[in-house]
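call fold(seq) -> tokens
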Amino acid sequence: MRGYVNQADIINYALTEEKDKIAYKYASKISQPQPSISHYSPLAKVESPIEIGRYPTSRFSLLALRPITGGKHQLSKTSYGIYPLPHNW
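ret:
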């Protein structure tokens, strides 16, 4: 996670499932938002001397993410509530 995360917390967003054309070929295209709850906690913090944009150093946090309820791609979608991901690993 880019930036420092200092404490554990819970992310609680309702997500609408995005159905792809192959896996959900015959499913209804319309879906209602579903509860999506995840717990996260910081494991480590790192600062690198690499300049990114206007910042002279780069800061990153390693997080443990644990889905409580939810579905497909929940962790990558709800993590934006903490801080936008540089990319999805």
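The chain has a mean pLDDT of 77.
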